Amino acid sequence: MGLSKEQLLARLKELQIGFSQYEHPVVLTVEAQAKYVGHLGGGLSKNLFLKDKKNRFYIVSALADTKVDLKVLSIRLGLGKGGLRMAPEEALGELLQVPLGCVTPFSLVNESARHVSLLLDQKFKSQEHCFFHPLSNDTSISLSTHDLISSLNQLGETPHMLTWR
Description:
This protein is α/β, with parallel strands linked by helices. It has helices at about 5-15, 30-35, 70-75, 90-95, 145-155; strands spanning about 20-25, 45-50, 55-65, 85, 115-120, 130, 140-145, 160.
């Protein structure tokens, strides 16, 4: 079984990562999340779990207003035009150990997700703070991009920064 929300938040505190926590009803979309934390300022994230033809998996985490073009991304990754698609729902549970609506860069803390690559929107760096779900979509946490990257590095992950054109 993967880490729980409580275990992840405890790990972030142990790593001395500063964040603010906001409880809210379960949300499945960025638009729904915005109703509860959008007024606080900062960047809301959308997170896609993708798979290529060679069964490699990726989490793409981008600002909510970033246009994520899978064809363009596929070409940039050297996979050809149709090389990326949404990962099957069962892979959420098997690899990320989260249910639908809970994909987040923090999903990579689970050992089963060690071979999943994280592609992070460069525009997060322009935000004072950003919002992500901590493995559960009934909570959002706000943290700086520096703290996000620092926490991921301390947890053994290195995100690849992407610039969208």
